[in-house]
């Protein structure tokens, strides 16, 4: 947006200082006139015939007062210019940092020295904003690169299968079609997961009353065949936990948590427990499973998109793309809640979701 050129803040402050001094000097002269000169007799003899009269005092004092006023004006302009430059120096650094960031150099920091004041607070807030922005941009760049890689893999496999079918007409087409169907389903699931993650990040949904206990029962009923296939006990406990949000997104969140708990479990005879409860002004959902012990340094990375811990990688049909907990984290964040990951006492993972309770 183009604006008309105007006076700089330094010029405005210098003029303000000079104007303030000039007005102060004028008020001082007015006080002298109001309380001194007006009481001096204005006659040819003066006061008692020995003091000068008002006419002589005024004509003697006026040139000196004019010189003093001119000095105050010049002193105010010069002093105001220097003081304004000194006061606005931190703002100049902040402006240069903003221009540097505008050119794409988000790693630059102001790190202003000195005691705490308004400019120091602005500088620290700007540095914090740059740090968050740099982290967000880096995260988006990694997300775009990983998404491109994940989407390219099924497309490359599909092209290879089609090349095989074209070059070898005697190849069993039923097998190729089945493999193409599997690869295509994975690409569709990945695309839907990306769209769901984007929708959760934008927070574009209508809020309504949702009971997490009902969603937990629905997710458990849906995933019960998968749990039975893996010989894993799946149970839902607790009571009502009502919050406000998107029923669809929250159902995806619960389903992803339960599915992760089932898939990343012991090879057999494992267990998954889904518990819901209301605690004060919070609605709590906790999903706990059995499994191998997880290293503590792995937990913070599990909610990043496309991050798969080496201890949790699957090679079967439920391999996934590493978006399950990323989607959960996005949905929880868009609903104003918190997501906590903790290792289980004897292995596995305990995931706790806390959402604001519906009022």
Your description of this structure?
- There is one protein chain.
- The protein is of the alpha+beta class and 359 residues long.
- The protein has helices at residues 9-35, 54-102, 118-167, 173-202, 212-229, 247-263, 324-334, and strands at residues 208-211, 232-238, 242-245, 270-279, 282-289, 338-343, 349-356.
- The strands form 2 sheets. It has a 5-stranded mixed beta sheet, covered by helices on one side. A two-stranded antiparallel sheet has the order 1-3.
- Strand 6 (338-343) and strand 7 form a beta hairpin.
- The longest helix has 50 residues, at 118-167.
- It is elongated.
- The model is unreliable at 309-320 (pLDDT under 50).
Helicity range: 55-70%
Number of strands: 7
Order of helices and strands: HHHHEHEEHEEHEE
Strand portion: 5-15%
Distance between the termini: 44 Å
Q: Count of helical segments?
A: 7
Low-confidence stretches: 309-320
Mean pLDDT: 80
Largest sheet: 5 strands, mixed
How are the strands ordered across the major sheet?
Answer: 2-4-5-7-6
User: So what's the overall shape?
Assistant: elongated
- CA radius of gyration is 37 Å
């Amino acid at each position: 947006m183009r604006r008309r050129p105007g006076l700089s803040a330094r010029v405005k402050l210098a003029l303000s200082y000079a104007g303030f001094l000039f007005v102060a000097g004028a008020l001082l002269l007015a006080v002298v006139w109001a309380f001194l000169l007006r009481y001096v007799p204005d006659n040819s003899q003066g006061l008692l015939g020995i003091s000068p009269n008002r006419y002589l005092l005024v004509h003697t004092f006026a040139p000196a007062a004019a010189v003093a006023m001119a000095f105050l004006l010049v002193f105010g302009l010069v002093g105001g210019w220097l003081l304004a430059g000194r006061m606005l120096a931190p703002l100049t650094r902040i402006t240069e940092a903003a221009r540097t960031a505008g050119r794409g150099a988000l790693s630059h920091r102001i790190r202003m020295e000195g005691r705490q004041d308004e400019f120091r607070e602005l500088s620290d807030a700007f540095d914090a904003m740059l740090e968050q922005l740099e982290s967000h941009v880096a995260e988006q760049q990694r997300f775009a690169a990983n998404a491109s890689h994940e989407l390219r893999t099924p497309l490359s496999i599909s092209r290879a299968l089609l090349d095989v079918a074209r070059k070898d007409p005697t190849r069993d087409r039923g097998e190729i079609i089945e493999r193409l169907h599997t690869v295509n389903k994975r690409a569709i699931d990945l695309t839907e997961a990306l769209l769901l993650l984007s929708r959760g990040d934008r927070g574009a949904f209508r809020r309504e009353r949702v009971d997490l206990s009902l969603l937990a029962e629905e997710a458990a009923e849906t995933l019960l065949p998968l749990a039975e296939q893996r010989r894993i006990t799946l149970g839902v406990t607790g009571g009502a936990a009502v919050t406000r949000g998107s029923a669809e997104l929250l159902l995806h969140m619960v389903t992803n948590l339960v599915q992760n708990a089932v898939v990343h479990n012991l090879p057999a005879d494992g267990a998954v427990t889904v518990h819901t409860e209301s605690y004060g002004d919070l609605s709590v959902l906790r999903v706990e499973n059995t499994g191998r012990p997880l290293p503590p340094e792995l937990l913070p990375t599990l909610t990043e998109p496309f991050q798969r811990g080496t201890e949790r990688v699957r090679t079967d049909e439920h391999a996934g793309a590493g978006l399950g907990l990323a989607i959960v984290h996005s949905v929880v964040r868009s609903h104003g809640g918190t997501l906590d990951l903790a290792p289980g006492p004897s292995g596995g993972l305990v995931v706790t979701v806390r959402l604001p309770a519906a009022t």
